[in-house]
Amino acid sequence: MFIVCYIPWCLCLIIFCILHLFFLKIRILQLISIILTSLSIISGLITLIRNPGIYYNDNTIDLNEPKIYCYQCKFLYPHLKEPIKHCQKCGVCCFGRDHHCDVFGKCVAKNNMRVFITFSISMCTLLMFNFIALALMATS
Length: 140
Prior knowledge:
The chain has helices at residues 2-23, 27-49, 113-139, and strands spanning 67-70, 75-78, 84-86, 93-95, 99-101, 106-108. The protein is of the alpha+beta class. It is elongated, with a radius of gyration of 20 Å. The model has no long low-confidence stretch (mean pLDDT 76).
């Protein structure tokens, strides 16, 4: 799913950035386009690379501590502050799991939540910026 969704989206962002560099006459708009495009691509790559919070059973659990049993994984997990939730699509348990993102093909959980939010906000901002910049180019 990553190849189908993320790579073409990055290519579109780079093409928009190049178009803005050539057609926008205002330097600050060119700079904003470069910054938003770079932020979107980098935060997307970090979201893809970072472990979302998958807990791998290492069989060193203290028997005196409270535990959680996952019936799908058939593992005992230590009971921590963050909830452990099982993902049916990934087949693993994650700490602080929010959802499974089909664009990245992995869960969004405790460890990659901030960069995923950064990716989402920068993509929405870039999309709005592109529409405004294209409207400015069409009127001038």
